[in-house]
Amino acid sequence: MKGCNVKNQKHQFGSAHLVIIVVLSLALIGALGFVFWQNFMQPKEITTQTNSVVKSTTEDKVEQISQNELEAIVTSELGFLNGKTSLDQVTNQEKLHLAITLYAKAHPSASGVYVRTITASEVDDTLSRASISTDGLVHESIKCTTATTPVHNEYDYDSKTKTYSNANHGGHGIEKQISAIYSKASNFKQDNNQFSITYKYVFGVLREFGAGDSPIFGTYSDAENETNAIYVFKAANDEIGSSVSIDDQKSYIENNYNSFENKLSAYTYTFKKNDGKIKLVDFSVK
Fold first, then answer.
1. Three-state secondary structure along 65-126?
2. Alpha-carbon distances of 80 from 3, 76, 161, 173, rounded to whole Å
3. What digits encode the pLDDT tens for the residues 97-133?
4. CA gap 98, 13 in Å, rounded
5. Cα separation, 92 vs 97, whole angstroms
6. Whole-structure pTM over 0.85, yes or no?
7. Distance CA 231, CA 250 (A)
8. Distance (Å, rounded) from C-alpha 219 to C-alpha 251?
9. Measured CA angle at 172 (ends 130, 176), to 5 deg
10. What is the Cα–Cα distance from 197 to 10, expressed in whole angstroms?
11. How many CB atoms lie within 10 A of CB 6?
């Protein structure tokens, strides 16, 4: 009986080994079959990657402007800023005066720079092409700036027809007018679409009768108060027409400019050009 039990145990162990070998073989065959199917038989998805490259077709356009262009704007449009220190001080009346002046230059009559009538839309259009901003512009009658006592209208404004008409207030003399008799431009700079230029002026005082001594001043306020003259041109006598000519004054200033340059105020005008339009965006005096 004992020998029979040993024989049965060996048979059982042999059967178990056979089962294990069969199971492992089947597992190995299955694994190899899956690998073969995955690598050689399975349909592959073809993925195409498209790299999209966006090219900018619009670039920031850098405008160009010459120093001569800026000088032309300053001398033809911005003389009324000589007595100011910032753009905040520009008045509605000064904007209207500028529009009338520029329109008259573009449409001269037979008698010269003179305008009989001008519409509000023509004023708006003229200023839109000038360097001064039209923000806050109000259409109203335009006062005469040459004589302030009594106050005269230079142009009467009709709000119904939206038209300015020359008031024809009659002739009068010049009470006192301060003007830049000499100017010198320098320091032209560009920063992208912003451009700046600096001017120094020598001021004189124009009166109704031009006789007598002719002092010149380094600042507008000195000319207004007639103090701190940097030089006085002596007249030969006190008769009308005896004053030193403007050309002679300019010649003297040019020849002696370096001796009193440090006494002159520096006016800096900063412009921005956009879509062909040049606008004054900043103004300072030092």
1. CCHHHHHHHHHHHCHHHCCCCCHHHCCHHHHHHHHHHHHHHHCCECCECCCCEEEHHHHHHH
2. 135, 10, 29, 20
3. 999 999 988 887 755 556 789 999 999 999 999 999 9
4. 118
5. 9
6. no
7. 12
8. 19
9. 70
10. 113
11. 9
* 182, two tokens: 């000499």
> What is the token pair recorded at 107?
């449409």
CA gap 98, 100 in Å, rounded: 5
The pairing of beta strand 163-166 with beta strand 214-217: unpaired
Q: CA-to-CA distance for 262 and 256, rounded, in angstroms?
A: 12
* Dist. CA 163–CA 193, nearest whole Å: 36
Give, in order, the Cα–Cα distances in Å from 30 to each of 5, 19, 43: 38, 16, 19
- pLDDT tens digit sequence for 186-225: 999 999 889 999 999 999 988 665 557 889 999 999 999 9
Q: Which residue has the tokens 């024809």?
A: 168
Range 37-71 burial, b when 16+ CB lie within 10 A, else e: eeeeeeeeeeeeeeeeeeeeeeeeeebebeeeebb
